[in-house]
């Protein structure tokens, strides 16, 4: 019976991955769900238990190394062994760099601790268990981790860092049989951008991206899980994302114009 840990599992993509895994495996699954909101985690946990999954809830702030390590230790103690770690926890941000004051710049570091370091700490703690099971690591990055997007200097930096870290780790772990899958979603129909930081480092309440044609959470979760099961190196979502990645190599100016077109006018340089 596989044991899978999902961070950022209280809503959005993380919660949907938990529900899909529970439906697919039914009574043949152990799930550990982690996020800051215990109440929201319990709601998702009950939905998964209704499908027959065994679920452990662990309130966790991944910006805290001790909590990351406690998450892995407690989950393994609860269920024994570990087959997959899905690093999904993250926070968004929309702010032009010139609009961020020197006094407020500290939230860039906070965002990096959540998006990058949370994944690093959880993965480091989980690695011995994943090597023992020749399991899987999933890192949920973003298309903003492949192409820099205006107004997302902090977010893109954190997601580019994730991409580099897990690409190097994938090569290191190749002889061990542990797979590393990095997922690159585009605009997904979740509230993450509304909860993301603005120039002051507080919840923006709005999205800085054009939401037309946003991918559903169900489709995004399905693609990530399919990539994990297939042990794919990368899952690049949307045709524009796949195109932009390669065009960037030969015509970077075109990709920069595509990135500018993806943001609302008030998030463009002034």
UniProtKB/TrEMBL annotation:
GO terms for molecular function: oxidoreductase activity. GO terms for cellular component: membrane. Residues 2-190 form the Ketoreductase domain. InterPro entries: KR_dom (IPR057326), NAD(P)-bd_dom_sf (IPR036291), Sc_DH/Rdtase_CS (IPR020904), SDR_fam (IPR002347). Keywords: Oxidoreductase. Belongs to the short-chain dehydrogenases/reductases (SDR) family. PANTHER family: DEHYDROGENASE/REDUCTASE SDR FAMILY MEMBER 7B (PTHR44196), DEHYDROGENASE_REDUCTASE SDR FAMILY MEMBER 7B (PTHR44196:SF1). NCBIfam families: PRK06181.1. This is SDR family oxidoreductase. It comes from Comamonas testosteroni (Pseudomonas testosteroni).
């Amino acid at each position: 019976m596989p044991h899978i840990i999902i961070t950022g599992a209280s809503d959005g993509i993380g919660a949907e991955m938990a529900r899909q895994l529970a439906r697919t495996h039914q009574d043949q699954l152990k799930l550990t769900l982690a996020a800051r909101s215990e109440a929201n985690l319990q709601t998702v946990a009950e939905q998964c238990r209704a499908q027959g999954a065994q679920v452990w809830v662990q309130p966790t702030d991944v910006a805290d190394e001790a909590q990351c390590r406690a998450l892995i230790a407690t989950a393994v103690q609860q269920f024994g062994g570990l087959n997959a770690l899905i690093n999904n926890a993250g926070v968004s941000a929309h702010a032009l760099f010139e609009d961020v004051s020197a006094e407020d710049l500290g939230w860039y570091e906070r965002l990096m601790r959540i998006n990058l370091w949370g994944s690093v700490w959880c993965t480091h703690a989980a690695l011995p268990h994943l090597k023992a099971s020749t399991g899987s690591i999933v890192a949920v990055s973003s298309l903003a981790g492949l192409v820099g997007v205006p107004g997302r200097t902090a977010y893109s930096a954190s997601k580019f860092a994730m991409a580099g870290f897990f690409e190097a780790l994938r090569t290191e772990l190749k002889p061990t049989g542990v797979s590393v899958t990095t997922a690159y979603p585009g605009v997904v129909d979740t509230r993450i951008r509304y909860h993301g930081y603005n120039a002051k480092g507080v919840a923006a309440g709005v999205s800085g991206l054009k939401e037309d044609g946003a991918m559903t959470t169900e489709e995004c979760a399905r693609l990530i899980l399919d990539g994990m099961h297939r042990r794919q190196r990368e899952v690049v979502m949307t045709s524009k994302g796949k195109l932009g990645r390669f065009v960037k190599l030969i015509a970077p100016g075109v990709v920069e114009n595509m990135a500018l077109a993806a943001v609302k006018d008030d998030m463009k340089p002034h």
